Amino acid sequence: MKKNFLMLATLGLITLTSCDKKEENVVVTDETVTVDETVVDETDGVVEEDVKTLDLTFSPASDSNLSGTATLTQNGEEVTLDVNLSGLTPGPHAIHIHEKGDCSAPDASSAGGHWNPTGEEHGKFNVEGFHMGDIGNLEADEDGNATLTFTTDKWCLDCDDESENLVGRSIIIHEGEDDFTTQPTGNAGGRIGCVVIE
């Protein structure tokens, strides 16, 4: 009888110990899931510190009627330029990054030439031989409005690499179309809009 009682007591103790361990495991498992979910949320979401945005307003040049805005956004390794313009003549207009952050001259000549830190010839962006500022053309509709979205991983905002850093340059809108071949400007004509990237 005593043996049976001792066996039952031992079995009961083992059972209680097993239950305790299971409960502990469940709690630990729950905590692990919670931590994992938090990490996943942080990984999948946009980390605010990694996104930089500059909102810019164009000034007209060469007695043009141009007005509009540009937004530069760096998200991780990529920079996106969004441009919205009005007051243009219908048709294509060249848009370039120029080397100097200076729009003070009436014809925006103070912005200097195309931004070309690698010493290449003028051409199409991402095609062999191009300036870092060779964005291309935007198309104005019959009302003189134009938009452009341009994304690249070859630019950065306020980074240490001066061959990629846009800050301290200017965005220029030209009166004509970039033909991508005439050196060094693409035969794009006068400068009708300018904004400093700052």
Which structural class matches the secondary elements?
alpha+beta
| Major sheet description | 5 strands, antiparallel
Q: What is the topology, as strand order, of the major beta sheet? A: 2-9-8-5-6
Kindly state the percentage of residues in helix. Answer: 10-25%
How would you portray this structure in words?
This protein has 1 helix and 9 strands. It is of the alpha+beta class. The strands form 2 sheets. Strands 2-9-8-5-6 form a 5-stranded antiparallel β-sheet, with no helix packed on it. Strands 1-3-4-7 form a 4-stranded antiparallel β-sheet, with no helix packed on it. Strand 3 (67-75) and strand 4 (78-86) form a beta hairpin. 26% of the residues are buried.
Task: Give a summary of the structure in a few sentences.
With 198 residues, this protein is an alpha+beta fold. The protein has one helix at 2-44; strands at residues 51-57, 59-60, 67-75, 78-86, 91-98, 134-140, 146-152, 170-174, 191-196. The strands form two sheets. The protein has a five-stranded antiparallel beta sheet, with no helix packed on it.
List keywords for this structure.
198 residues, five-stranded antiparallel β-sheet, 1 helix, disordered N terminus, 9 strands
Topology of helices and strands:
Blueprint: H1 2-44, E1 51-57, E2 59-60, E3 67-75, E4 78-86, E5 91-98, E6 134-140, E7 146-152, E8 170-174, E9 191-196
Antiparallel strand pairs: 1-3, 2-9, 3-4, 4-7, 5-6, 5-8, 8-9
